[in-house]
Design brief:
By secondary structure, this protein is mainly alpha-helical. 50% of the residues lie in helices and 0% in strands.
Length: 82
């Protein structure tokens, strides 16, 4: 199987903090990731899609925005007590 390198973009400050924390325990980012996978027997984060981004929810959000922009619906402040 042919392999290739993969890179990720992230905030420079976040990367620096992560590398510093990992350096203190003697790991690189890639080795920390691999060790986490081996230790827990799974990818160490949730790989599900947030339901907010499902097409049906996006369609409903678009519909509600259109109702608001047309004046057929009003914004309700849910932080106020009734």
């Amino acid at each position: 199987m042919k392999t290739t390198a993969t890179t990720f973009r992230m905030d420079a400050g976040l990367k620096m903090k992560a590398e510093k924390a990992l350096d203190e325990i003697g790991l690189s980012m890639s080795s920390a990731f691999a060790k986490a996978i081996v230790r827990i027997g799974a990818v160490p984060f949730d790989l599900t899609i947030d339901p907010f981004y499902q097409m049906e929810h996006q369609d409903e959000l678009t519909r509600r925005i259109e109702l608001y922009e047309s004046g057929e619906a009003e914004m309700v402040d849910m932080t106020e007590e009734f």
